[in-house]
Design goal:
It is a single chain. The protein is an alpha/beta fold. It has 2 domains: 32-199, no CATH class; 219-489, Metallo-dependent phosphatases (Purple Acid Phosphatase, chain A, domain 2). Helix content is 33%, strand content 20%. It contains 12 helices and 19 strands. It has helices at residues 3-6, 21-24, 29-51, 105-113, 121-156, 159-182, 208-214, 218-235, 262-274, 317-324, 364-383, 396-399, and strands spanning 54-58, 61-69, 75-79, 83-87, 94-103, 193-196, 248-254, 278-281, 307-309, 329-331, 336-340, 343-347, 390-392, 408-411, 418-421, 427-430, 450-458, 464-472, 480-485. The strands form 2 sheets. The chain has a 13-stranded mixed β-sheet with strand order 1-2-5-3-4-6-19-18-17-7-8-9-10, with helices on both faces. The longest helix is centred in the N-terminal third of the chain and has 36 residues, at 121-156. It starts with a helix and ends in a 28-residue tail after the last strand. The relative contact order is 0.09. Residues 12-21, 201-244 and 497-513 have low confidence and may be disordered. The chain crosses the membrane at residues 33-54, 136-155, 162-184. Residues 249-415 form the Calcineurin-like phosphoesterase domain. InterPro entries: Calcineurin-like_PHP, Metallo-depent_PP-like, Metallophosphoesterase_sf. One of its GO terms (cellular component) is membrane. Residues 502-513 have a biased composition (Low complexity).
Length: 513
């Protein structure tokens, strides 16, 4: 290379190195903004993971409170090793996680030794939670700002961008907190969802009557939760006995057992645990309805409560005849009305018998015809001054014909829950499969859950006060959940809805599941 070439002055083209690209062609404003938002969100999330936990003593327990990104919000309370309690407390991109780390032995023993201190536990818990919430706010603010600023500084290497990321993270946290505050629902504790061993302890939320009288504010219920969890820990492996309110009639609704022998043990356990007054089975107890299957039904007389049954499309008349001669069993068909545990119950058997696909189904017209017979029986009972409280059929199409003639209608057949209110005010509750779909469920890739429900009815008005939805893991699974629900007219603050004699109580429905 000659000397002239070596001494040539660099041109603009020579300066366009990769390091100069940002200077000559700066990124567009929207690209910078998107980059800033992405770095801010990721940094804030990492900050919450690393620095966002606040350790707070609540009564006799040591807890950890954390905010976590979430699409649905809500609150999760983990009580190891008993399980989780979930509340739909708010709707925001943040979920509140409360982990009960341990029960302080000194504080808990002092509480057990002096039970009179339980009366002041509510105020103590309220102070502890308020102090913990304040600490969580400070921890979260510091966590998101530090996380966003640190990641922005590592990525962009510009202090100004780091400060902008910190400010944006703080603004996003404030907006999320404002959304949570605006949507905060202290009554969410009325419909908690339990999992783990907590699902075996419905006394954590009290009886159906105490839901209405005692669930006034979230702080009161939190104190009740702390009290019961303390007793659970103190009792070790012995869970406290569930004491249902004496003014409620407790109905266990089961359906679609489909020859699953495990269902009888589950039902017997629920009868004992919830002190059930009457069991209602809306059919498909069998699979093919053969006489050889009849001995499967023998345990119904030993479950500890009267058994009311209607025929399903997998139950034959042979099955019905055999059950009708079993002790403590009442078979309902053609609109027959019976009085059990203080309730008037009427039912109709399924008009179809379709144990396999070789039988051509008659379809919904046959179901509506059977439902018409049920409706006629309900009208007759009302005219006689003895209105029916619960109408039963296996197929929801049939029992829907009773709309407006009974406050509550129970069915099965669908193998999943559907709870809604019919146009004339009757609440329709379709139960899932208490047998987990039976042995045929083994053909599915995912085991069907075992489902049953406990209904609480007022003994005087026979209105539905509350219900517990019980869901157990299917074949080979050990999951257990209990969800409590209240009709809208039975929630605290709801205006009373008097029930005229002979008229059903129209109550808003729970959204279909």
């Amino acid at each position: 290379m000659d000397r002239a070439a070596r001494s040539r002055t660099p041109t603009a083209a020579d300066c366009r190195t990769p390091l100069m690209a940002d200077v000559l062609h700066p990124p567009r404003p929207w690209a910078r903004a998107l980059g800033l938002i992405a770095v801010t969100l990721l940094g804030a999330w990492l900050g919450l993971l690393v620095l966002g936990t606040a350790h707070t003593p609540v009564g006799p327990m040591d807890t950890s409170m954390t905010l976590r990104p979430s699409l649905t919000g809500g609150t999760r309370i983990a009580v190891a090793p008993l399980g989780d309690l979930e509340l739909s407390s708010h709707y925001a991109p943040l979920r509140l996680d409360v982990d009960v780390d341990r029960l302080d032995p000194v504080r808990s023993q002092a509480l057990i030794a002096h039970p009179e201190r339980f009366s002041g536990l509510q105020a103590e818990v309220t102070r502890d939670v308020t102090r913990g919430a304040a600490g969580l706010v400070l921890h979260s603010c510091a966590a998101v700002t530090c996380g966003a600023a640190a990641l922005s500084l590592a990525v962009h290497r510009r202090p100004r961008r780091a400060l902008a990321a910190a400010g944006l993270a703080l603004a996003l946290l404030a907006a999320s907190a404002g959304t949570a505050y605006a949507t905060w629902n202290p009554k969410s504790v009325l419909e908690p969802k339990f999992s783990g061993l907590l699902s075996s302890a419905p006394s954590v939320v009290g009886s159906a009557r105490s839901i209405v009288t005692d669930f006034h504010v979230y702080q009161e219920e939190l104190a009740r939760l702390v009290t019961n969890v303390t007793k659970l820990y103190d009792a070790a492996s012995t869970l406290p006995v569930y004491r249902p309110d004496p003014s409620t009639i407790r109905v266990l609704h089961v359906s679609d057992i489909h020859l699953n022998p495990a269902a009888w043990r589950i039902i017997a356990s629920l009868v004992t645990q919830y002190r059930i007054d009457v069991i209602v089975d809306t059919g498909d107890t069998m699979d093919h309805g053969y006489a050889a299957e009849n001995h499967f039904l023998d345990p119904v007389s030993t479950l500890g409560a009267p058994y009311v049954w209607v025929r399903g499309n997998h139950d034959s008349h042979t099955t019905q005849t055999y059950l009708a001669h079993r002790r403590h069993v009442t078979v309902l068909d053609n609109g027959r009305v019976t009085r059990v545990a203080g309730l008037r119950i009427a039912g109709v058997g399924d008009p179809q018998f379709t144990p396999d696909r070789s039988v051509v189904a008659a379809g919904d017209p046959a179901e509506r015809t059977a439902g018409g017979r049920l409706a006629d029986a309900l009208r007759t009972a009302r005219l006689a001054g003895k209105p029916v409280d619960i109408a039963l059929a296996h197929n929801p199409v049939a029992v829907s014909e009773a709309d407006g003639l009974a406050p509550l209608a129970l069915a099965g057949h669908l193998h999943h829950r559907v709870i809604t209110t019919l146009p004339q005010g009757t609440r329709l509750m379709v139960e899932g499969s208490t047998g987990g779909g039976g042995l045929r469920a083994m053909q599915n890739t995912t085991p069907a859950p075992v489902q049953a429900s406990v209904l609480y009815l007022d003994r005087r008005t026979r209105r539905l006060q509350a219900w517990d939805e019980i869901t157990l893991g299917g074949l080979g699974l050990s999951r257990a959940e209990v969800s409590r629900h209240l009709p809208h007219d039975n929630r605290p603050g709801a205006p009373p809805t008097p029930r005229p004699a002979g008229a059903p109580s129209a109550t808003p429905g729970h959204r279909p599941r």
